[in-house]
Design goal:
Blueprint lengths: L1 H19 L3 H15 L3 H10 L9 E6 L5 E7 L4 E6 L13 H8 L17 E5 L2 E11 L4 E6 L4 E7 L6 E7 L5 E6 L3 E2 L10 H4 E11 L4 E12 L3 E7 L7 E7 L15 H4 L5 E8 H9 L5 E2 L2 E4 L1 H6 L3 E7 L5 E3 L5 E5 L5 E6 H9 L5 E2 L5 E2 L2 H4 E6 L4 E6 L5 E6 L4 E6 L5 E6 L4 E7 L8 E8 L15 E7 L6 E8 L7 E5 L13 E2 L4 E2 L10 E5 L2 E9 L2 E3 L2 E5 L3 E8 L8 E5 L4 E5 L4 E7 L4 E6 L12 E7 L18 H26 L7 H29 L3 H31 L7
Parallel strand pairs: 12-17, 37-40, 39-45
Antiparallel strand pairs: 1-2, 1-33, 2-3, 4-5, 5-6, 6-7, 8-9, 9-11, 10-11, 11-12, 13-14, 14-15, 15-18, 16-17, 19-20, 20-21, 21-24, 22-23, 25-26, 26-27, 27-28, 29-30, 30-31, 31-32, 34-35, 36-37, 37-38, 40-43, 41-42, 41-44, 44-45
Helix pairs in contact: 1-2, 1-3, 11-13, 12-13
The chain binds [4Cu:2S] cluster and dinuclear copper ion.
Dinuclear copper ion binds next to loops.
């Protein structure tokens, strides 16, 4: 029955598509022909129609996915599943110049561990910044499990701005989870280790090794984490895992899972059973419940001491001040998720087939009544499972993570071992639907599904294995993100997306219209600090500043030349090239790469970026723009000449490869006059329309006006040379004048097309 109704829907769609094309019979046959040729069923075509975004179209949601071991994060659109951007975070990435320009090197340097550069990250859980429990579209946080670090990405330009390293931990999996107003970002350690930076034998594991949970203070105005205002809960050497922050009624509290509360230490080489055996022998582990609001008050009142320069709440203090409590949870749990209404906490069992629903009200009552079943070996009070539990529901083998629907009570749980998604109701305990997926799902994600107001509509299964789903590309397979339609009662699989960049763990999806990223920087901008760069440079003000053997070059980029075009330095100099992109047009990025120095910059409109390096060998080093920015992009080039020490540069004129005559000059001028006529017509069209109502056109016009100004300067130079009878230079400057005219015309035509296509009105 279900099948027939789906088929009916598909046929209706075929009919609709047909009606859109004028001839019914013609269209039907064409569509059916394609379906037949490609072996597509009606169900396939319906799925395609639900995910297809036509050229120039936009997606409804934007996903930020972790990039696993790549150290990056990945942005893609839903429902199209088109990848939009990889944003480099912990790992250098040349396309973005990340880890190549001085500005981003400074960001990576914030993440040094024990004084060493660490240029990779194992990213796990991205989190959007929130206001009152809903995404506000301003920032994304991401953690590194291998080296316990967090990073801040600003969504105004999708660039990584800050990295902080945890002062206590040696690994951290349970981040990032934000409190409802992004007061704090939670980061829990994973593998217990000594807090002090020295050797401690494993024999001292119980007494000297520690877990923990850091609440990183975030400042929404500055967009930066504040290590000096952050605090850490010292925790027992259990392997703390994922976290979630309370919301609504549970605001002010945090919940953190753990496994291996056995405190087992392996050692196969010494004849001990491995970790996997010793870490899963007990039937339950512990959820840690922390009161961050009260802890914050203690910090503000000066009642918490600093260790390693950071606030540390010892277990002793947490017990005394009633800040931390433990509750048993199913064996080796994984995800812990606070429900949208903040009243329940869901825990997935991993080695249990149940999802466990805890009641926040019951937990609070137990704390108030001091109703504890005892303490753990460190004296932390334990609330009994019976006291805190609302119900447990059999959801399938190996539940990992939960995510919420827009429908009250409805939740989706990823089932790792059974490779399925289970849809159920945590308020009634009823199973509503199951869907097999390919294969071994880890996290899953619904639209804004971890906020106070989930959007429903789509679900993505982030699968660990893709096995046979795609064209084979060798033993290392891409990951598979499967898009599922959850708008109806039954889940429907729509699309498989191969994701070939590390192993993404969690992902979060935000409504696309909450994001308003900029298209250009204010001219002369250091994008990593978000302030004017001291190295910015305006057109015509390019210069070289030498101090001893330190050389600073202040240059500019605009279609289609780099200023300077020749850089002369000496062997042994330290050279800093600072380049400002003068373009205002959208998407007119210039790159900058140079032979032999590991230099590759990405300089978006307005940005100033710098490359610093030492030149230790005399020689000739070409450089060029690495973005195909214009018809004369290949000519966007220059030479760095590294001269031997003591060499005197020659002032003799360079001999041109071509000779030009008065006739050449006059022919070029005639061309330029004709080109100017075209420009004037375009300008006439634009100014006779309401172009000021179109921000894109306004910026194109600004840029075109700049280019025309440059054309005017070149024209004057050619006329001066011609008046002096120097037709060689007159011709070259006349050609440069024409180059600027071509750029002006290109911009003008783009503006004109935009106006025509977007219904501009004639105003005079
Ligand atoms: S983890 Cu990988 S599937 Cu790091 Cu959240 Cu669960
Ligand atoms: Cu600038 Cu190519």
């Amino acid at each position: 029955m279900k099948f027939y109704s789906r088929l009916g829907g598909a046929l209706l769609l075929v009919a609709l598509v047909s009606m859109m094309i004028s001839s019914f019979a013609f269209a039907e046959s064409k569509l059916q022909k394609v379906m037949k040729e490609r072996g597509l069923t009606e169900k396939d075509v319906l799925a395609a129609a639900k995910t297809y975004v036509p050229t120039g179209g936009r997606d409804e949601y934007i996903v930020c996915s972790s990039g696993g071991q790549s150290g990056h994060v990945i942005f893609y659109g839903i429902p199209s599943m088109r990848i939009l951007k990889y944003v480099a975070v912990f790992t250098p990435e040349p396309w973005q110049g990340y880890g190549f320009d001085d500005e981003s090197k400074a960001v990576l340097a914030q993440g040094r561990i024990q004084g060493k550069d660490i240029v990779f990250g194992d990213t796990h859980h991205p989190a959007f910044s929130e206001t009152d429990g809903d995404y506000n579209g301003r920032y994304v946080f991401i953690n590194d499990k291998a080296n316990p670090r967090l990073a801040v990405i600003d969504l105004h330009d999708f660039e990584t701005k800050q990295i902080v390293a945890n002062p206590f931990f040696r690994s951290a999996h349970g981040g990032c989870f934000v409190t409802p107003n992004t007061e704090y970002v939670m980061e829990a350690s994973q593998y217990a280790a000594p807090y002090k930076d020295e050797f401690v034998p494993l024999n001292d594991f119980n007494d000297e090794y520690r877990g923990g949970l850091t609440y990183w203070k975030f400042n929404m105005d500055s967009g930066r984490l504040e290590p000096e205002n952050s605090f850490t809960f010292e925790m027992p050497p259990y392997s703390q895992d994922l976290c979630d922050a309370g919301k609504g009624p549970s605001y002010g509290w945090g919940f953190t899972n753990s496994f291996c509360t056995e405190r087992y230490v392996g050692g196969i080489e010494k004849g001990r059973p491995p970790y996997e055996a010793g870490c899963s022998s007990k039937d339950t582990d512990f959820m840690h419940v922390t009161n961050w609001k009260k802890a914050e008050e203690l910090v503000k009142a000066g009642k918490v001491t600093k260790v390693n320069g950071a606030y540390l709440i010892t277990m002793e203090q947490a017990i005394k001040e009633e800040l931390m409590f433990l509750i048993p949870e199913p064996k080796s749990p994984h995800g812990v998720d606070v429900t949208p209404d903040g009243l329940h906490i869901l825990v997935a069992g991993k080695l249990d087939s149940h999802a466990w629903v805890y009641s926040f009200e019951k937990i609070m009552k137990a704390i108030k009544d001091k109703n504890f079943e005892g303490t753990d070996p460190y004296g932390l009070p334990i609330i009994s499972l019976d006291t805190a539990l609302e119900r447990s529901v059999n959801v399938g083998l190996g539940p990992l993570h939960n995510q919420f629907d827009s429908v009250d009570g409805v939740v989706y749980t990823s089932i790792y071992v059974d490779s399925q998604i289970t849809k159920w109701n945590y308020k009634t305990g009823k199973i509503l639907d199951t869907l097999p997926i390919h294969y071994n799902v880890g996290h899953l994600m619904t639209m804004e599904g971890d906020t106070k107001h989930p959007d429903g509509k789509y679900l993505v299964a982030l699968n660990k294995l893709s096995i046979d789903r795609f064209n084979p590309v060798g033993p290392l397979h891409p990951q598979n993100h499967q898009l599922i339609d959850i708008s109806g009662a039954q889940m429907e699989l729509l699309y498989d997306m191969p994701l070939p960049l590390g192993e993404p763990h969690y992902a979060v999806a935000i409504k696309a219209d909450k994001l308003q990223p900029t298209v250009r920087y204010k001219t002369g901008w250091n994008s990593r600090k978000d302030e004017k760069s001291p190295f910015r440079c305006r057109a015509g003000r390019e210069k070289v500043v030498r101090e001893g053997n330190k050389v600073d070059i202040y240059g500019t980029l605009i279609r289609s030349h780099i200023t300077p075009e020749t850089i002369e330095v000496y062997e042994g100099d330290t050279v800093s090239i600072h380049l400002t992109n003068l373009e205002r047009a959208q998407d007119e990025v210039h790159g900058f790469a140079m032979y032999g120095h590991n230099v590759q910059l990405s300089i978006e409109p307005g940005k100033t970026a710098s490359a610093t390096f030492t030149v230790d060998k005399a020689g000739v080093y070409p450089y060029y723009c690495t973005e195909f920015c214009s018809a004369l992009h290949l000519e966007m080039q220059g030479y760095m000449l590294v001269m031997p020490k003591g060499y005197k540069p020659q002032d003799a004129a360079i001999i041109d490869g071509e000779k030009y005559t008065k006739a050449d000059y006059e022919a070029q001028v005639a061309t330029n006059i004709a080109t100017q006529d075209v420009i004037n017509q375009v300008v006439g069209f634009i100014t006779s329309h309401n172009y000021k109502d179109f921000p894109i056109v306004v910026s194109l016009v600004e840029d075109a006006t700049d280019q025309l100004g440059f054309a005017e300067e070149a024209k004057t130079k050619s006329e001066v040379a011609a008046a002096e009878g120097d037709f060689q230079n007159a011709m070259l400057w006349a050609n440069q004048w024409w180059q600027y005219q071509v750029k002006t015309a290109d911009l003008g035509l783009r503006a004109k097309t935009h106006l025509e296509q977007n219904g501009a009105k004639k105003v005079k």
